[in-house]
């Protein structure tokens, strides 16, 4: 049965540019060692996911003449915890129920970093690389998917997931604004897998920004 993809799910983001052609010409996505590895349905490599998302975000910031963001382990930890909560609960929300990290302010404080401002993007997409394309379900129980032409479709790699997620955020005005804010310095991203979601799993994502 042919199944068109549901669009990437995004919520309103939390938060509060000119683009010279010369600046765009020298911008490229930094390669991350190991990013072509397929994502396991059991466990995420949070450091690898964080690095892959950061590379995509800094590419877009470069294209708009903005400075690169630097990674912060404390933010990655909080982003991973929030994504894990969303995956467990099946809720895409900036507000959680896990103690001191129930909202963005709590997560920023729990990161251990000093801050004046912050922002957060969240999203969810399929574990298998089905987003934005038409596909056939050959076996739902065995997670076998193909294109209409019969080409197999596997799980996302860290790179493909990061690339698609950031591209979708850039196409959403509020999320795009967060990515391109000039007064941000650090960021951290993390994910959580919900294995029993439709079509063999979903990945919930959180990226926290700090300035």
TrEMBL record:
Domain SCP per the UniProt entry, residue ranges: 55-207
Superkingdom of this protein's organism: Bacteria
Stored InterPro entries: CAP_dom, CAP_sf
PANTHER family assigned: SCP DOMAIN-CONTAINING PROTEIN (PTHR31157:SF1)
Transferase listed as a keyword: no
Keywords: Signal
Key word Signal present: yes
Signal peptide: 1-25
Protein name: SCP domain-containing protein
UniProt cross-references to SUPFAM superfamilies, sorted A to Z: PR-1-like
């Amino acid at each position: 049965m042919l199944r068109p993809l549901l669009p990437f799910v995004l919520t309103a983001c939390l938060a509060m540019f000119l683009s010279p052609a010369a600046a765009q010409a020298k911008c490229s996505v930094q390669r991350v060692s190991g990013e072509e590895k397929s994502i396991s349905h059991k466990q995420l490599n949070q450091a690898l996911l964080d690095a892959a998302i950061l590379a995509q975000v800094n590419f877009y910031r470069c294209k708009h003449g903005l400075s690169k963001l630097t990674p912060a382990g404390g933010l990655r930890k909080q982003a991973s915890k929030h994504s894990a909560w969303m995956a467990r609960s099946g809720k895409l929300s900036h507000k959680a129920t896990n103690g001191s990290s129930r909202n963005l302010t709590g997560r920023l404080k729990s990161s251990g970093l000093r801050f004046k401002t912050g922002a957060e993007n969240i999203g969810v997409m399929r574990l298998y690389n089905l987003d934005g394309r038409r596909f056939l379900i050959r076996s739902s129980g065995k997670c076998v998917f193909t294109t209409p032409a019969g080409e197999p479709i596997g799980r996302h790699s860290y790179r493909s997931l990061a690339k698609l997620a950031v591209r979708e955020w850039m196409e959403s005005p509020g999320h795009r604004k967060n990515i391109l804010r000039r007064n941000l310095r650090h960021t951290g991203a993390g994910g959580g897998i919900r294995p029993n979601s439709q079509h063999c799993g979903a990945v919930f994502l959180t990226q926290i920004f700090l300035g």
